[in-house]
Amino acid sequence: MKTKMIALDLDGTLLRHDDTISDYTVDTIQKIQEKGHKVVIATGRPYRMAVKHYRRLGLTTPMISFNGALTHLPEKKWDFEHSVTIDKRYLLDVLDMQKSIEADFIASEYRKKFYISAENQQVVNPKLFGVEEITDKMTMDITKITENPNALLMQTRHEDKYALAKEIRQHFNNDIEVDSWGGPLNILEFSPKGVNKAYALNYLLNVFNFSPEQLIAFGDEHNDTEMLAFAGVGYAMKNANDVLLPFADKQTEFSNKNDGVAKELEKIFL
């Protein structure tokens, strides 16, 4: 079999609802890597929230985080690292909208740091940012907004996060991307215009001299649509949002709770 690149979303796809990966899934992915295939995490999460899963899987491939805005080799210098940022004026505009969009918090994300604006810090789950607690150093302050962020993250109380994402995109004349995370949380992520997981995977395929036909991708949410459409074979999870299904070639037989990714990969490769 020709060498494949396998792109895996995390939330709602590879991860179970308790943010863990089963031993069976880890073992399956390690066996596939031993056959020479490249397994790549492609997530909306920042690096610091994905790296524990990268390590658990024993990966040595580049990671795609921030929904495609950062492609890098974790903990190593890599000549092909690729970072795309959002003009910070969008962050300032979104902060002005915080009440109208019913945001519990708005965060600006950078590779190694983040800042959070929240009227009530108690509504912020530190685990969302891979830290034990939110400190004063992490609090958003206009004076700290000196760099363009890789992504913006918000948690909203709005009853329909998909409708809100559409409204925000229209507000900004579709000059930025706004997508939802997988899983049960009301999380929206903002990315630079034209940047998504397919954008980053196309870049990575070129680095490794692979074709899109060599790409297999798994996802469950709105922010996986471009990735599944781009891949040679795109799998929507059994638990996928219905909006994703028209972009998928296939659907897994099992959900993320029941090792859906690993069971499909086992059929394909093992």
From TrEMBL:
Taxonomically, the superkingdom here is Bacteria
The record ties this protein, via SUPFAM superfamilies, to: HAD-like
The alphabetized UniProt keywords are: Hydrolase
Record-linked CDD domains = HAD_Pase
Q: What InterPro entries does UniProt report for this protein, alphabetically?
A: Cof, HAD-like_sf, HAD-SF_hydro_IIB, HAD_sf
Q: Does the keyword Hydrolase apply?
A: yes
Tell me a GO cellular component.
Answer: cytosol
MF annotations from Gene Ontology: magnesium ion binding; phosphatase activity
Q: Does the keyword Metal-binding apply?
A: no
Q: In its UniProt entry, what is this protein called?
A: Cof-type HAD-IIB family hydrolase
